[in-house]
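Forwarding the complex inputs:
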Amino acid sequence: MSPWRKGEYVVAALFLAPGLIWFWTFALYPLLYAFWMSLHEWRIRGTSEFIGLANYARVFQDPVNLIALRNTVVYALISIPGQMILGLAIALLLAKATRGKVVLRLIYYLPVICSWVVVSLIFMFLFNSEGLINRFFGESLGWVDPNTAWLNDAATALPVIALLGIWKGVGWVMIIYLAALQGVPKELTEAARIDGASGFQVARFVTIPLLAPATLFILVLLTIGAFQSFIQFYIMTGGGPFHSTEVFLSYMYNQAFNFLDFGYASAIAWVLAGLILLISVIQFRFIRQTYSY
Amino acid sequence: MPKPFHMTLLTVAMLAASVGMAQTITFWHTYSTGSGEEQTMLEEVIPRFEAENPGITVEATAFPYQEFRQKLLTAFAGGVVPDLVRMDIIWVPEFADMGALEQLDEYDGFAQLQSSVFPGILATNFWDGHYYGLPLDTNTQVFLYNSDAIDEPPATFDEFVTFVQEASDPTEEVFGYSLPGPYAWYFLPWIWSNGGAVTDPDITVASGYLNSPATVEAVEMLVGLYDEGFLAPTIAGSGLGSWEGLGSGQYVATQDGPWAYPSITSQYPDMNFAHAPFPAGDGGSISVVGGEDIVMFSDSDDKEAAWKFTQFLLSPWAQMTMAPTGQIPVIKEALQDPYIQEHPFYGIYLEQLQTAKPRTPHPEWPRIEGIIQTAFQRVVAGDASAQEAFDRAAAEVDALLK
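Prediction (whole assembly, two chains):
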């Protein structure tokens, strides 16, 4: 006989039901429905024509998707290391700080809880050609051309958006590392100290290697986040000028809601999901091998 | 039969009758809530219609323009639509093509309304052999300038180039002209005035039109002036907005629709600015038609009442009541109205409207617009020559028109 009696199954089912129903209705069902849509020339009313994998063929032929991939990778390569290095540095410093810990933590964490819409608008004002950045670094210091239209030039728009990504994400990285630092055994750092290691050496050879699981967790989530970034791109540049800051979701959004091409947009979403899954699997494999202790 | 039952029957019958009589039509629009548009509609136009048509109630709801198209699409997809909508003229073919709109040309009195309105804007309601709406208000863009800085506005493209070069002072960041943004709505008048086009007249092909020498030359003129520092960075979507730039004296001239006047004068009451027709190129002085059409959704369950309200909105009284709020009337009769004749600048808008052209009336317009704006932005950014960018755009639009 099973260790559980019948009544316990019922109770368990009752506890699970709300979560499961929520998941089926708002995650699984839309996911599968989007796949169904991606196989059609979708019309918002009336009969949609079944076209098989034609939308997927389009995803791989459309040059804009390649631009979106390139932009996403550039965005990830700037914003992820930026967030991780700064976040780790702040966490290490804050862990040692004796005074003002709470206030500093709050200050670094503030951008994380701010709405993307709000921070995007702030950055737009800062980086407008009439904005504060040009006034200060251009007119006062003379470091940049005071008429630089940051967000209207392909070469500067993407780094500016990545900068916003770093600023907004650092606090989150810091919090995760702060939590992970609680798990680093004091005996190990003290032993290293006694052996004559400097503060930097302790961090480099003891603390940071022990933070590897947290690092992996942060890396995977930040990568997923970078591939799913949307609001900052949509608000600050709308993917323009001429697709130079287009990312998958801004392109998908335009296809779906401006051009009503829901079938094609769903196909983009599914390809993106596959891509994220692939990258996450690779990251887990690769980092598990490198940092096993 | 016992009495109470009779009473019940009677009550039910009366209820049914009153329900049948009280008709409510829902009317969605984007009349601005800040200016007098919505107020005049709610406090003057609708009450008078309801008084003249007892039993019909009009429930009007305002939406911000930016959200409106999506709101309508969602409503249509969900099957819960309003009866009447005042929508941007450029959306009508798209919604008609989806089967969302009621075909109006067989309704009683349509022919009469059809002959009473300006044909240019009426044409924006025509799709696939039928009319799916009627014009409600119209507008276009004209040349706006700081009349303290200019004596005589430029009348031709040559005069425009000379004027922009002379009026600009790049060292002081004064720009002779501001194209308000890198959008089709703003640069199409320059292409058309130079004799260029987006497609052939039958909207079957873009190659040979969107990349014609006349189109390319117009784009090169604007971008050339911008590269030399004579045009404001608004052409690239940056810098001070065109109204702020004009008001603060940083821009000497710009272009916009009739809504610019009340906004600029309220923000910069000391500024003197004036209206003029667009400078004329080889194609004439040609601006772009804007405005709104009134359409009935085919899902409406009160078509008769909705049609009555549509006819009322096109009556001379309703059209002239809305005119002072900036809604330029669409009925030919309005041209003789003293209010229009004495208005400080409607005359110039109406004159410009005689030759103004609509943006390509095609269900794929949102995509076409995206393609030509991308082409324009690439030229502004120096990413491609005007010829390269518009050759590529023409090929892409060709594919959509097939």
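The two ends of chain A are 41 Å apart (CA to CA).
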